[in-house]
Amino acid sequence: MSRLHVRAGRLADLGALEAIEVACFTPDQQSTRRALRLSLSSPCQSVLVAVYPDGEKNRVIGAAIVHKHLRRMRLYSIGVLPSFQGRNAGGLLMDRVMECASSSGPPEIILECDESNRNLVEWYERLGFRVFRLLPNYYGTDRHALRMSQKFSICPAKRLVTMPPENLLDRVIRGAPECR
Q1: pTM
Q2: Does residue 57 carry a pLDDT above 50?
Q3: CB 98 within 8 A of CB 111
Q4: Rounded to the nearest 5°, which phi and psi values hold at 26?
């Protein structure tokens, strides 16, 4: 593929996912290698990756981890390598998450973000998310989070966005009754 695109994460992406965690999050907010591996194989979670063509190879430059609950999806994590920020990788990842939720998933996506990161809060607001709760000391003493939400109207005529067959998000959104 010759352009930036999003696909389902694979076990082979584990090293790249770790690099994204280290580059984008403070140590206390980083997912461990074990947690990332579990996210890749869980029927209740999905990992989406943004891939950038880099010569002969495709390079994973961003990722989103989504948890599915009965009434909502939770954007657990999203990050793009700093040297690739501003190229719409985060926007493409969020587009895919929101397309899936609005097509046939739970009618709401929630997330938490650092209250002090105004750029991130404003980015989510531009995407249609609204703050509905302050979470005091969520990231540690005096490090508050905002819980944000976006609700969708489900249209039965809409179909799930087409994704590669290895996609876990398709399985997660369509059922997996054990996800609570």
Answers
A1: 0.81
A2: yes
A3: no
A4: -70, 155
